Known about the structure:
Blueprint: H1 2-39, H2 44-80, H3 83-89, H4 94-136, E1 145-150, E2 157-166, E3 169-178, E4 184-192, E5 196-205, E6 208-217, H5 239-246, H6 250-279, H7 285-308, H8 319-334
Antiparallel strand pairs: 1-2, 2-3, 3-4, 4-5, 5-6
Helix pairs in contact: 1-2, 1-4, 2-4, 2-6, 2-7, 4-6, 5-6, 6-7, 6-8, 7-8
Amino acid sequence: MLGRYVLREVLVPYLVGVVLFTALLTFDLLSSLSGVLLSRGAGVEAIAALVLYRLPWTLSLALPLGLVFAILVGLARLIRHSELKAAYAAGVPPLALLKPLVLLALLVSLLNLGNLAELRPRALEAYDTHLARLLYGEGALSGVLRNQLYAPPGLGVYYAEEVRPEVGQNRLFGLRVVDGEGRVYSASEGVWDEEGWHFRGHVLEEGTLKPFQGTLPFPVRFRPKESLGSRDPYDSSTLGELWARSRVEGGARFALYRRLADALGGFFLGWVAAALGLSFREAAWAFLGIVLLIFGYYVLWTLSAQLARYDVNPLLAFLPNGVFGLLALFLTWRLR
């Protein structure tokens, strides 16, 4: 009964928090694109479409951040009216109030996982297509990646200066391959489909250059894409596509772990916020708690991304969750 009462106190601020963060992020998007939109004479419908396509990306941030805001604001109200103090005096253990808030955090995390896995990348791809049409007009190239390097296990190194996605295949330009036996292949262009890389060019074997026409095996096929919205080549790939890319791309492995870690982030942020809020005796600490939790998670999130640039273990994508998980366990232990 008391747990449901605490949840009701949190749900209204949560809706307010999600709307607030969504509005702030949307305003930031529009302000950054204002010059482009004005110069292209974009109408209300075109701008509304951009905002709509960007909404899943915005919600992927607003859902966990709004949860921190809601939990600490809701608990601060209970502290200010001495309701938590009365509950503790009546023998209600803090862990009984913590449990429904942690379950709420888990629900938000699962909801965000579905968004991050499928909805956000597909919406971001539509956003990129719409933005490219505004910037470059109809028929502009989109989804083209340049200077792509792949390392399939046991097959050597595959490189293409440019990869263009087409229906049922990918077109390759300026490709180079060094296979597992040291042979070097080169061609001006080729095709990448389910069987592998098909091309006609040359092969350098034991110091002798020979003509080559055939297929080199490649274990996975996916549509290479680069997001105009974030300049991240992985943002518009679904979780399944990321898993496929991670088999041959080192950078995709970090992106895959980062996607999963971002979904889990809402759970750990909510858990820490709940345990921290239930330990407060003064409501004034709530605002400081909101700032410190969000800022601290962002610092660790940024640090893990910087470490990934230096080929550090991609599992460091879970660094913020690991730190906040330990903090959550410590705060929960103190509530006993």
